[in-house]
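Input sequence (201 aa), recorded before submission:
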Amino acid sequence: MTFKATRARVHNRGYPPESFLEELIEWGRKAPDEIFASNAVPVDIYTVIKSSLATPHGHDGAGTPSFTWDTILQRRAAMMEAMRVHAGMESSWNWNEGVDTTNRTSMANITGQETGVFQISFDSLWLGNNAMLPFAKAHNIDTPEKFIPAMKHDHKLALEFYARLARVSIRWAGPLLRHGTDSVYPWLSRAAVAEFMEFLK
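Predicted structure, token format:
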């Protein structure tokens, strides 16, 4: 694979390592369609990245630009692009990133300690009425002591957990909630989505 758009710089974090992109693509090829399909959650990751990555589709009756997701392949690639950028923002693509030592709340409570490439904390399991708890139990990460190292060392699990959690809620994710240069949005790329789609075929 020759990476071009998918190796684009993210803010002041640099460029994603090819090793990260290779693992992301390997996961993206095999992940179940259900992760990327439409759901009933009012605001999930697809809601907030739609205007950045979906296909422009004219304007609505009020003159506001509208966008559509054309295929499940496009949705899959768009999720991967969000993951590429988000991992850069959170950890500079460091799978072993530990707790934010500047966050007193995190340091004082193991359930809130950030971990891994996406800096997700164990208490994210409680979002959406404990929506991620069955997944955590099925994958033996239903305590902070098991969750924290697993998010660092089991890369496929970390990728799937992120994708599933981002379909439940984005309330845990600063780079998805912010809208400045320290958010994901200025760094998302339709060209990267197109490149990911080619890699997935």
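Checked by second reader. The first strand starts at residue 55 and ends at 59.
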